[in-house]
Task: structure prediction
Amino acid sequence: MNENLNGFECVYLKPQTLTDTPMHYCPGCAHGVVNRVLMEVVDEMQIQDKIIGVAPVGCSVLSYNYMNIDMQEAAHGRASAVATGVKRVLPDKFVFSYQGDGDLAAIGTGETLHTVNRGENILMIFINNGIYGMTGGQMAPTTLIGAKTTTSPFGREHNANGYPLKITELIAMLPGAYFVTRHSAHTANAVRKLKKAIKQSFEYQKLNCGTCFIEVVANCPSGWKMTPLEANEWMEKEMLNFYKLGDLKVPANQN
Amino acid sequence: MDKTKFQLMKGNEALAESAIRAGMKAYFGYPITPQSEILEYLSRHGAKNNVVVLQAESEIASINMVFGAAGAGARVMISSSSPGISLMQEGISYLAAANLPCVIVNVQRGGPGLGTIQPSQADYFQATKGGGHGDYHLIVLAPNSVQEMVDFVFDAFRLSEKYRVPAMILTDGALGQMMEKIVLPEFGTLPHDTPSWATTGKLKNRERNIITTLFIEPERMEVINLNLQKKYLEIQKETRIELINCDDAEIILVAYGLSSRISSRAMELAQEEGIKVGLARPITLYPFPKNEILNLSKNENVKFLVVEMNAGQMLEDVKLSVAKNSPVDFYGRMGGMIPSPEEVLAEIKSIYQHKIEVVNQ
Result:
């Protein structure tokens, strides 16, 4: 991959562990970026032979097509249970789950809370775009009040639909959680921070001290019915106003 | 069998100990009567035998932990009782679709709904016809003694790993709770290597291993289904059935698990009264020993009496097997009620004395 282009050196390379399969993600979607930085970390830490990923139902379901590592596809909501099964029998390997908001914070809420409460030594990556993208833009547990989706066509209204769930805040309260942080992937700076958090999480996983949990507040231009640019602007203005970026729980000795 | 090694053990605990001796690497469970002793026994004895034992937050989580561990190449078992097995059906469908070996133990209780904690055989359809969504089967073994609760753990692991099909031990609350003398198998007699397809970390010298059940293109999904069906066809050679006194029997009882124990006693009582009664006991409920039953139905003037602790579930498979060669009658109790040998005897005598013609549909 270290090719020269008319004498210029290519400095932005595809990670070795990212496959050549064209991604199915919609234009402007954050998934592709997160897939990529995750594989950059795998490359840099040279852990391709020591890592197993779990991708459940949702837009994340096909991520195993893009990551050149061993992976399992889980039933809807059950990624952290599957990851638990993997990690318990392969305790020396790195294990992560890669889940969306419908998966992790609706149908899989029980598994999510109990996995973290047991302090499973895995990394859970939580892509929160506030919508069910794969099924065509239905209301998610994290959909903001007032946001229009195909199942909240007049805007989410708390009397009928309840409130958007800040599951990451719940996670941070659990003693099994070791490192809990919220990021985004819509600017170069944000991507760099996210990558650092992923790398840090895998370093922590070696310590066997508990679950690392990274929420990535993400856009969904298709589901939100916006251009990628509009989606990023709306995300910054609305989503990040409700889901504040930053660390929610850091290891005690670093406080 | 070395009689000096006899021990007295409860069915559930004997099964758990057998799983340890079979080299089980991980067990995931959730409490439910009448099988909690399996989880309890393994919680006490698992760790010192290097078995991962985890009490999950639900049956749904536990079956998905089984998926992860099986996909990572571990020999893994799970147990529950009827309502819990219902909760696991989605996960079992995924396990079947992903060709993942594992052993699932159903210590049945009476349903439907929350039902009762008393023994039942009402999950026969669920166990043998698929249970969850999609076209799939499990290998289903039905023990009728505590010794078979022990032995079938080994058989279930062996068959499940040979065919990459989840195997179920379909037993019930009575067999789980009763104590009988048994001989336990030795440690290390069922070797296990990590399979080449397991997700253990992608090595440089192989392609990545993906465990998935998602095949969007119908052309591919059909191939997945055809491959499963090919496997189920191959599995048909694994049928097992016990035949007692069937050669010259006028009435053949067909029963499995606990109802075969009861039928066995009813057979003895009938013989004391001079009625020639045999017992055909399917040991594998899937694959069902249909050829063996068909052969029995070719005997002159033979009648069948299916005895189950349900409303007549295996009855359908027996009827399909005899292909209208012989009448098939049924006796069953439901909802946790256990038929007595005398009740079955009364049914035998009624068939024998009054030559009841059963319309065989």
